[in-house]
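Lab notebook, bench 4. The sequencing result for the construct came back, and we need a structural model before the next group meeting so we can plan mutations. Quick request posted to the team channel:

Model the 3D structure of this chain.
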Amino acid sequence: MRSAMRWLSVVGGLCFSWASPAMAEGTPVDCGSVDCEGIREMKALFEAQMSFMGETDRFSMDLAAVGFAPPACADGSRAPVPGPGWVAGCRFAYRVTAVTGYPEAPASFTAMAQGAAGTAAAGVKLLISKPSWDKVVFTLERGGVRRFVGWDECLPAASFTCDAQLREGTQNIRGLFTSERAFMQEKDRYSSNLQEVGFLPMGCTDGTRAAGPDSSWVGGCRFIYSVEVAGTGPAMTFIATARAISGPIAGTTMKINETGVLTITPVPGMCQ
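Done. Here's the predicted structure in token form:
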């Protein structure tokens, strides 16, 4: 999978075709709100597409083929679909609007969710742009105002808290550990060059990426990552570091070594 990721290069100039409304700051929404239905299912659609890409080296316009099946309402009803290619959930309908695929073009996809008329979701639109494997832009539009949607929105209990924000770092540093171990199997060594080992974490949903102090660091959204390597040959060791640089968890440091032991050092008073 690491080698497969390397050909997923950035697609320049990808844009949406709607008129540009005002853009608001991303604000967490109530987990029980109608917006969260669309947010949760669009995240599920995204994850289904990424899983399908990992298995087939392509994205798909066919949501059934990628395994995306949003649930109906509690009474069994579903939103009406606007036309062919749409999949109905409870109060939203979903579809993939465009796909480009390897090897003819860099792999990417765009998808949207549209709230059903006559429901609390009427007039709500969510859009995902996937211009490259490490980048995604996720927005919600209501009443002519569009905002970016964070991956930590509309999660179960503990949403918008430290646990939700720390999840980015813990998932990515474990991914970095896996990349280093896979690189060792191929090259008989570890590497502090994260591009060489094929590690590039997802940036924020507004397309930005955290900046590190120097070129040895690679930025995700709230965290930056680096690896220190010691020794030679079979006796080589490494320590990977993830450091939070924004939000209430800023300053939190995570470390994982070649044996998989993970330690987390929070900042004093974090989220209190």
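The radius of gyration is 20 Å.
Will bring this to the meeting.
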